[in-house]
Amino acid sequence: MTERESMAYDVVVVGGGPAGLSAAIRLKQLAAKAEREISVCVLEKGSEIGAHILSGAVIDPKALDELLPDWKDRGSPLTMPVTDNQHWFLTKKRKFGLPDMLTPPFMRNRGTYSVSLGNVCRWLAGQAEELGVEIFPGFSASEILFTEDGAVRGVATGDMGVARDGSHRADYQPGIELHARYTFFAEGARGHLTKRLTELFNLREKSGPQVFGLGVKELWDIPADKHQPGRVIHTQGWPLDDAWGGGSSTTRTTTRSRSASSSRSITPTPICRRSRKCSGGRPIPQYVPRSRAGGACPMARGQSTKAAIRRFPSLCSRAAR
User: Fold this and answer.
1) Would you put residue 192 in left (φ > 0), alpha (ψ -120 to 50) or beta?
2) pTM above threshold 0.85
3) For the segment 274-297, what is each residue's pLDDT rounded down to a tens digit?
4) Continuous H helices in the chain
């Protein structure tokens, strides 16, 4: 086995998104307040910070007020306040606007800003580096490292120069081990290391099943005469005829707009634990077609896994196949 180099830090943050960068900044702030020196590094698998974050977003600056109260004086990308907020119900040929008084409060976007989330991350990275955080873009954490007693002691980056058949090319370089007193996982909703930790430590044992959505995002350049800076549009209805979801469009600059649409996942979600009555602990679909199962899945109504298996044993065996 190839020996890997190692580097030691007080804190290693896995993921250079808003959560990971904000955590690194806050840790450095707390250390300075306590007159202590701590070493913090951030690993980002993208070629640069923000490379994997294509989302346009509407941001409430409340959290930023707490993290960096003088963010307006630091050249932040929050420069386009939301000036117009609309909610449309779409059909194939028409739209119907929802009056502002009927719009849910959390969708009114008063006092918020339309931004590129990738630019926000790049700016946060600059703030973190000013505080002494070391940021390593282009390095993906591929393995969790454990101590002899089973505690997490850090991560290792992936090997470089490995051929498809697993052999080492001439430019092969082994990964680097990053040891830490504390490892902060901020990989996102489906991070592969986070999933490994979730399984190993049963982190979702007392939680409900996770539900995922599928989103599609685009960046548009549009004519200036068809553009209103600061406008935010939420939509529902067409083209999602039989799925829960909607869309949004945020205007960030004078000629650029970001649009996104999403729908709730109808993919079977693993929700049953290993059981003698369930072959190998395979998943029971959370959304059960009524024509095949004779009713909605009991797990959706909060019943136990055993109740689901008793009621739908044939469904469980089908899922196992």
Assistant:
1) alpha
2) no
3) 333 343 444 433 333 333 333 333
4) 18-33, 62-67, 117-130, 192-201, 290-293, 305-311, 313-320
